[in-house]
Each structure stands twice: as C-alpha cells, then as structure tokens.
Amino acid sequence: MKNSISKNELIERLRSSEQLSSIFPSMLIFAKQAKNRDLEQWILLEMNGYLNSNPAITPKTSVPEYRKVFGQYHDIYNRPLIITDPKYDFISEHRLRDSIIELEHMAKSNGMLSMQDATRMKILKDGLNVEVHSFDFSAKSIFGILECIRTTAIEKIIELKSPTEKIENQNSSIELQILHPEVKRVAQKLFEDGHYRQALLDTYIHLVDSIKTKSGRRDCDGVMLMQTVFSVKNPIIRYSKDADEQLGIMWLFQEP
C-alpha cells in the first residue's frame, strides 16, 4: 500500500525512548489504513484527552485504570485532609484525563502536582462537611502512566493485522482452497493460526494413516511402508503406470 505505515517500524519506535506524542500521529495513520475503528478511537482519546470536548468520547467511554494516580487533598492553608471513613477511600485516587502531550509536560515537573475536581470537592463538602482546595500528587507517577500507555500501544499494534498482513492472509486462504479436502480438514485451522510446523506434521501423520488404511498394511511404517505400498514392481497402491512417477511418489511419501 502506498505511503503505508510499517507495523514493525511502529513497534520499534514505541520500544525506543521517543516521546509518545511524536509516535501517535503515525499510529493514527496506521489505524486508519487498517480500518480499525476501535484502535483509531483509543488513539484519538489518548492524543486529545478523555475530555467532553473530544469528539472521540462516547457515552460508553471511561478513563482507563492505568491513568490512575494516588494523592491527598489539602485545604487552602495546605493542611492535609485525613480521611478515616473507608467509604471515602476512593477520594485518594484520580484518573487523569489529560492528553499525552500534557502528561509529558507534567512529567518534566519536580515534586508535587495539584489539580482541582469540583465534583470531588462537592462530595467532600456534602459528605464530610469539609472544604478542600486541591488534590496533590507526585509528578513521578506520570512516568508510570506514560509507560502503561506505551505498553498498551505496543500490545494493540502487535494484535492488529496490518493491511499487508491481511492481503497475505487472503492469499494464503486462496492457496489453501486448492489443497485436498482431507489436508484442509486436518491442517487448515493450524495453518491459519500460524502453527505451520504442526500443520505439516499433522498432515503427514494423516497421510501415513490413510495409506495404511487404504493398503491394509498396518504391520509396517515409515520407509518400509512406502517402499512396500508404492513398489514399482508389485505396488499395492498404483499411482502411475509410469515407473519413474511411481518411484517418485514412493520417495516423496517416505520423506517425513
């Protein structure tokens, strides 16, 4: 495909130290070329943030678990809020909605970062009758979020078949259609799942068993079986009247 984005190139870049904000535009192109709407939506959410202003947001969208940070609320005098009621344990954690590039800027900070959440502040006011000013958390926790996004991106790219791979798989399916029905029955699923060695082994085992059944010679195996059944002078199974062709099939089948 012209100007297509390489799957391996993306994975290599994601495994490097390159910033995610530089890689994700290429990932978006890859997702569009692969026509994978789920991956495209996830990329847009990470690029632009899990915000209501982001068109990629849907009623079913939730901020991923890996965007969670732990911290503590403080009042206007910077006094920490100590909560002993387990019902409010959720108050000590937040899932950051910021875009990737904003997270990268936040990760450059030292010490503590602060944020305000009107909904959480109202919960504390209504439930505990306390007023808080900000939720503070360590800037170092942003590194963990970025690494989780990076790992998730790698997993999603690895799982996704690129346009080139889809064409190759389609060609493989066409090639499989010309095989004997018994070969397809025994090995097609293994082949399509990428278990090529097992597909070949199972095919050969089935071939040997079929020859034993057709010839009635279950008293021998391997080379002896093939030389006996496809003997040029006295064959049990005649493949061809041509001696060379009969000898050729004997040699072919006796090679595992």
Overall morphology: elongated
Radius of gyration: 31 Å
Structural class: alpha+beta
The main sheet comes to:
4 strands, antiparallel
Beta-strand residue percentage: 5-15%
Pick out its properties.
four-stranded antiparallel sheet, alpha+beta, 256 residues
What does this protein structure show overall?
- The model has no long low-confidence stretch (mean pLDDT 86).
- The chain has a domain at 179-254.
- The chain has a four-stranded antiparallel β-sheet.
- By secondary structure, it is α+β, with helices and mostly antiparallel strands.
- Helices cover 54% and strands 7% of the residues.
- It is elongated, with a radius of gyration of 31 Å.
- The protein contains eleven helices and four strands.
Reconstruct the topology from this structure.
Blueprint: H1 7-14, H2 20-34, H3 37-48, E1 68-74, E2 93-95, H4 100-107, E3 112-115, H5 118-128, E4 134-138, H6 141-159, H7 163-176, H8 181-192, H9 196-215, H10 222-229, H11 243-254
Antiparallel strand pairs: 1-2, 1-4, 3-4
Helix pairs in contact: 1-2, 1-6, 2-3, 4-6, 8-9, 9-10, 10-11
Summarize, please:
The chain has 256 residues and is an alpha+beta fold. It is built from eleven helices and four strands; from the N terminus they run αααββαβαβαααααα. It is 54% helix and 7% strand.
